Amino acid sequence: MLIWTRRGRAALRTAFAALFALVILAPLAVVVLAAFARSWNGVLPGAYTTGHLRESLTDDRLAALLVSLQTALAAGLLAVLVGTWGALAVASAPRLLARVADTLLHLPIAVSSVVVGLSMLVAFNKPPLLLGGTRWIVIAAHTVLVTAFAYSTVSAALKRLDPAYAQVAGSLGAAPPRVLFRIVLPLLMPAMSAAAALSIALSLGEVGATIMVYPPDWRTLPVGVFTLTDRGRVFPAAALTLTLLATALVTLTGLGRLGRRPGAR
Amino acid sequence: MTRRALWTLPPLLLVAGFFVYPLTLTALQSGGAWTRVATSPEFGRTVLRTLEIAVCATIGCLLLGTFFALVLTYAPFPGARAVARLIDTVLAFPSYLIALAFTVLYGSAGVVDGLGIATLDFIYTPAGLVFAEITFYTPFVMRPLLAAFGQVPPAQLEVAASLGARPWRVVRQVLLPEALPALAAGGGLTLLLTLNEFGLVLFIGAKDVTTLPMLVYTKGLVTFDQAGAAVAAVAQVALSLTVYSLYRRVAR
Question: Where does it primarily localize (chain B) (predicted)?
Answer without folding.
Answer: membrane
